[in-house]
Amino acid sequence: MLFSYLDRQYSNHFVLTISAKLARACRWFIPMIFGLFLLSSQSLIAQTEKIDSLRQVLLHTGQDSFRVNTLLNLGRSLRHAYAYKEATQMTDSAIDLASKINHFRGLCRGYRYKSILFRYRDFNKDSSRLYLRKSYLLAERIGFKLGVIKSFNDLGYHYQYYETEHLDSAIYYYKRADQLNDPVIDKEEKCISLRSAAFYYNRLGNNDLALEYALRSEKQHENNYHAYNFLAIIYDDQGQSSRAIEYYLKILKVTTGPENKNWYSAALNNLAIAYVNRENYEKALDYFLESYRLDSLSEDQSIIANSLSNLGKVYGDLKRYDESLEYLQRSIALYKEIDQECPMHLPLQGLAATFQGLDNYDSARYYFKQSLTYSKKCGDIEGSSIILVFLGQIEQKKDNLQQSFEYFSKALEYTYQTGVKSTRQEAAQGLYKIHKQWGNFKKALYYHELFKENQDSLFNEKNTADIARLEADYEFIKEKEQLLADQEKEELILQNEIKRQRVLQYTALGGVILFLLLFISFYISYRRKKRANEVISSQNQKLEELSQFKEGLTHMIAHDMKNSLNTILGFSASEPFDKKMNGISQSGQVLLNLVTNMLDVQRFEEAEVSLDLKSCKIKDLVEEARLQIALLLQMKSLRLDIRVPNELTVKADSEMMVRVLVNLLNNAIKYSKPGRLITVSVEPTMENANSFCQISVTDEGEGIEPNKLPYIFDKFWKDSSKAYGPIASTGLGLTFCKLAVEAHNGEIKVTSEAGKGTTFLVILPLETSGKVLTEEVQKTHYGGEEGALILDNERALLSKLATQLRTLEVYQVGEINALLQVLEDEHIQSKWKRDIETAINQGNEETYKELLDQIG
What we know:
- The protein has helices at residues 20-28, 30-42, 44-59, 64-80, 84-100, 104-122, 125-141, 145-161, 167-180, 187-203, 207-218, 225-237, 241-254, 261-277, 281-295, 301-317, 321-337, 345-357, 361-377, 381-397, 401-418, 421-438, 441-506, 508-573, 579-605, 618-635, 654-670, 733-743, 792-806, 813-825, 831-842, 845-853; strands spanning 614-617, 639-645, 649-652, 677-687, 690-698, 747-753, 757-765, 777-782.
- It is of the alpha+beta class and 856 residues long.
- It has a six-stranded mixed β-sheet with strand order 6-7-5-4-2-8.
- A hairpin with a 3-residue loop joins strand 6 and strand 7 (757-765).
């Protein structure tokens, strides 16, 4: 896309300063349309060749569907060559034939081409819109998604340029096309949707959204010079001229081929404009001269005229007025020769500016008036408002105040249509001076305030833009420095690579030998690695077999132990009143519980557990569990409180639930110091009209750290907290509890606080109705005596033995018992004596020392 060098570049010759917004608007509207015309006109020769080729294909085509496509392609090429009448005939023939043979996709395409012809040939926007809608509706009906996307893109273009009163419809259709093309069906149509949306938002002055869509368009494929062009324009509008220049240079890099010479020339032209924006006129002149060199080879005279105009303007900026006049007059003459009026106001305006630079105000006024005439013909309201201000300033210098007043007033009126503050500021300043000279001070004050208002606004905008530009330049310089550093590094690597290649060239034979050696070495290494992998695979298989053997052996041993334990328990149960047999029974029960945990966890994992559900009283379950751990309680002199309602029942496997309670109680006993309290309480609850019971087991041990709580139900997990007493553990007890409770549709939770103990909570659905919730709870206490730990008469005896007792370790059982025989002789059986005997029997050194400290 070509962009003309505009009138804003001549602000150094006038009091008037043209704003960035004006520059953006001018660059989008007039040069964009003109540039499209130039690009398309340069392809006329190529189109002529294509048209001749398509005519030959059409003569030798018999298949109807292929003939439809050929007619459509020929119609499109004729349209590009501006042969609208013949293009219409070919398109109509294609539509008729497609309708007869039900070639619906060809018909969709024909409707779109017909719409474009109505737009360009007849300027009939209603018919154009009608055919686009027919194309869209047909494509949607037949499920032709790409046809719908293309119709949406064309509808967006139609509303953006031909029905601007409905401009919002344009972005609606662009976004619809973008959404339908995701995931991407056609990259080119995706780029068109995104570029068009970027163009739409840029026209509205919303550079953020314009930039977003342009960047998305850039990512669609490599060397996307269409997207580069949009990005350069948007960055230039944001005052980031360094980034704009970077993208124009990218266009130059990817359009070096002869097929892209139009884009290459356009990029040169735009680079020149970017340097004009930075007031680097010498650099701008270099690019304009190179652009003119390429354009002068074109057969399209309008392109040459545009380049001449640009050169004339930049020479004017450099105050090289003779050259400026020469190029601008050549441009005007060429436009007249090819009878193109619309772009002529640009060189005329430049010519007027050059004469003003020479202080030739009569010639300047003459050419400004001519430029104004052509500007109005082209519908360029913004350009017209600028020229009117120039004319007003000239008439003001000539003291033609009435004429000056009319020019300034008309310019001010136009600015309220365009919104360009800089032009409004200059028009208001001119009207202020005129009314002041006329003595109309009220009007003068009004226009002075309007002038100041726009001046302040422009000043703030300029400062903001300058700051943004400086920040962008700083970031750009940093990026460039990094890029240069990377390039230097790459060049160094390249130089080293060249040196290496030269060495290899001189030692070719040695290189081949080295290669063979490396290959052989690699092959040997590969074979070794393969053998190693085979060994590792074999070892892994053996380990897997060993693991399976270990699990099977463990399972077998556990089964055999269970059978033996059941035998022991059976014999011990035959003498229920024998204290030794009772102890054997309880110890065997603990060991049986551990073995059963191992078996049941494996069965749960293999989904082989079958529950024997029966109605059970919770009181009975708790009592059975208590009986199994009574010996452990006694060994550690622990106290047990049980608080359970008498009649609460659950549907459960009684044996399994007893073992859950035994495991929880074993856990509490394991981490409780001698003499401490363990509490089992049962409370009924209601939730969503359902009855549940909460069984809690609470100890007064050291507690569990918060970061360890999520893992306590994992297999083989063991807490590092100190256990008190020789309580056996497999690391599967809590895992079994969780699996068993969840198998009963229950839930198990744990809460703990360091130094204050741990509470396990088992929640099970009740079998009984909600009326039991008011039942009185039975409280039972087991173990531990209240009262003094050391009796007075006992303390006197122990004080004499204190020194000797402290010299003995807990494992020196014989020596300790010999010293304690004194208490036995005195027939003293206090709690302290029983506790220290328990500590000695358990080998619990910490409790032993605590009890010695209590002697005093």
